[in-house]
Records
---
Amino acid sequence: MNALEVKNLSKKFGSLKAVDDASFYVPEGSIFGLIGRNGAGKTTTIRMMMNIIIPDSGEIILRGAKVGQEFRNKVGYLPEERGLYKRMKVIDTILYFAELKGKTGREIHKKANAYLKRFELFDRRNSKIEDLSKGNQQKIQFISTILHDPEFIILDEPFSGMDPINTNLLKEVILEEKQKGKVIIFSTHLMEFAEKMCDHIAMIDHGKIILNGSLVDIKKKYAQKNITLNYEGNISFLSSNPMVEKISDFGNSTGIRVKEEHFSQDILRLLLQNNVIVKKFDSNDISLQEIFVELAGKEDVEIKKEVSNV
Amino acid sequence: MFNYRTLAVIKRELREKLMSKSFIIMTILLPVFMFGIIGIQTLLISYEGDNGSQIEIVTQSDEMINSVKEYISAEEFVKSGSYKITYNVTNDIEEYVNSKKPLLVEEKLDGVIFIPNSALKDKKVRYFAKTPNNRSIPDKISTPINKFLIDQYFGTRNLSRDELDFARLGVDFAGFKVSEKEEFEEQGYGNLILAYVFMFLLYISLLMMGSMTMQSVQEEKNSKIVEVILSSVNSKELLAGKILGSSITGALQMMVWLLPVLTIISTTWFVLPPEFTFDITYGHLIYFLINFFFGLVIFLGLFATVGSVFETAQEAQSGMWPVMMLIMIPFFIALSMMRNPNNQIAEIASFLPFSTLMVMPGKFVLTDVPVWQLFASMAVNVLTILIIFPLAGKIFRVGILRSGKKPSLADIIKWLKYKY
């Protein structure tokens, strides 16, 4: 069953088509990744899902019904550009966000304290936000995102600007929430993260969804002619081999694309005959990055930061 | 639009504003500041800097100079020694002033006043000084000289002292307020002062609360916190919550400022001198507060919208001036009522959107305003709110989420057409 379905969503800003007839679905109990380079339309899509901006056309279906205010109350949202009231106290900040979701009272206060203890911020609960380090402010932001126990957690570029400790902490929280059966949706331009964490993905480019489905299926579909290779030695003889369509160097590993599926065993044999030390040979693997490059063209995936966030 | 989310925003605004040091300080200091300004103004005007002036008074005959001396010496400023006056007689004033030229130019001598014999008929006196535009010296000296000339003129005509005193008197208008009430009340300056206080408080408070609200919207916009908030609250709820929160704060502050007025009309603890007593009722005070609350809602809505559009305070200046004009022009119209409460511009302005907020309170303190006019003014305010808020809400919704280049007026008009 799908928790969330996005149907034919479109949004124009002036002459710019930010999101162009986008449709995808998010299955129940999954970690879903909305991936694409910066400026592809991820944030606009998420903002429309959150009802922060209204789409020109299309609709978002939540468990069979159109989203409205009740969806907002069930969502924990961590936007890409994060901010807090600088002069507000830590505990007041957390409780205020819960109150906006309709959660007040002693229970939520207790829970807030529990989270503060877990994130080692309990002794700072009466400090002002501006007196906290950036890393600690990020922690406050997560707590605010999940304190009201949302059914959906939407994270827009959650790892941008985050220090390694908080990155791990956030991953931990995401997996924990997944265990509880929550639906987690995140957008990112970092393919490796998406690859490691997501069950399902939708790939967006120039406002259009170019791929949607489970990661396993997608990989299976695209991996058949792909070999991921880690090696020592010289493989330059392969580039002129008629079985090979393309060789791409990804730094840590090399991707080889063959013309026919059954060529991969021949390639392995050839490598061994040529005294190449094979450390890893995966004939059924393709990285998201490769798929993305194949689908969206050769433009650099890691593009500079978005200039404007309309 | 009004639900627990709006309430949560209102509560946060109240907590933040009411507890802030600047709010408490302003609430206490503004009255001090206001009376301070009036005090300093009075002091500056009354301080003429003419202490230690050296003056020479010159006539054409000994007889006249002795007589003038008598009148002038009787004046307080001469007795106290703040003016040093010497007396002289000459036949040729030009030559006399020439001889004093070096002293006058170096300002060792502040002025030479020449009273010719002809002054007895035409009261024309000549004043020689380096800066004859400095009026403080002639203004002071003219009183005893005038007295002397009048006495000289009528003294030869067999008039009694009483008759002379009568001739010197100005006309004294006593103002009586005619109203529905039984008796005519003699009215002092009280209501005039009160109207001034009301308008000043309105003016200062709207500008102050306005810029505070604008800053707080800009803080939310720039710190990007607004996106998290908008994931729980829609932009109308946020705007309504912020404006109502700030308006309640402003109204509470105004109540504190009005406490002295309330104390005066409700108790006998303070007895004002008769010329300062004022005539207003509780109804007036309540109307004033309600009117002020409407004013806050309208203007804070405009200020919040301006804040949502621009990223920096500098950029916001260009959006702020039209709003400031809507406060300042009515303020000046209201001030013009001090001279004539029934002037036509004020009469019209008291029913126009925006200006009615400033002008009507002054009008009802200074004149008897029929009740229907008060209600008409309220109706105009409600209509203004109904018309500007949907527009403000649209601009706010687009503006608050956008960043980058400073938007032009054309951009903002385009936003109104966006489907948001």
---
Amino acid sequence: MHEATVAQFILEAISAEAKKQKARPIAAKISCGVFNAINTETLKFAFEAISIDTVCENLKLNIEQKPIKAKCKKCHATFEFDLHESKCPKCRHDDFELLPDAPLLLEEITFEDK
Amino acid sequence: MRKVKVRRKILIANEEYAAKNRAFLKERKLPCLNVISSPGSGKTTLLAKTIETLRGKLSIGVIEGDIQTDIDAQRIRKAGAPAHQINTDGACHLSAAQISYAFHKLPIDRLDLLFVENVGNLVCPSTFDLGETNKIAVLSVPEGDDKPAKYPMIFARAAVVLINKIDILAATDFNIKKVKADISKLNKKTKIFLVSAKTGEGMKQWCDWLENLADNKRKKILKKTRPRQ
């Protein structure tokens, strides 16, 4: 449900950049670590709703979910964390630490040609 | 068409406030605990009981977050601690800016420990940094033992998990061993306390942990600035 807050921040960031570029934004790429708990469809829907009558209306949002990684304390291998199979895929050891989750990032914006 | 690389953190505004809050708390050596759980896990009852148990030992303040009403702040005041209520009017989490403002609604310089009781929700509050010292997750027995597996975000980030309402364990299929194993998969350092805010069972261990946390922060200033009376 916090997707509405996140959508508002994205709208503000893209609108500010559009003003700087003096162009109409038509697409934007977002990346986020899975622990940000962003539901892709919900965020798209929230963004669509709040962007009506703004420079971002009809903008296409591409959201890339990044898995969280873990590091095995025994063999030091880095692997994608899966709660249902929480063992190091290399040595099967179950003592590992979760690495920091990828932040919620506005990666790039595509602008219409002037 | 042209592409512009931005690489900008979307929650940067919240992070900036969180950093300010962290500096504010650090300056005062005041530990701040962000308490997160589902609605109805017993957060407020637990805080009220904690305040009563630590009366005369720690001066506690509480920032309450709810969508509507100041019922929780009233309950905290009744338990004997100053409380400030934030109403989010629909938002599912507290943000760092709201906390910055709330600091000044409490006698902050007289406190040894500050709790923030977040909006009842196991998902969204875990992704908004408030600048707190630690996140505390509360899981109550009737919610079921599958919650750490289903909502890993908060359990991976919590320094402490309080398993509340253990007085009704016998009436449920709640498996403490499974919960402990699931939490430990997410974070080996998490401390787990089994408590019943209603009967008081296990409250001593939890309150000892809090006293220790506050003492570690406070001793540093006592030595430096305040002569013992």
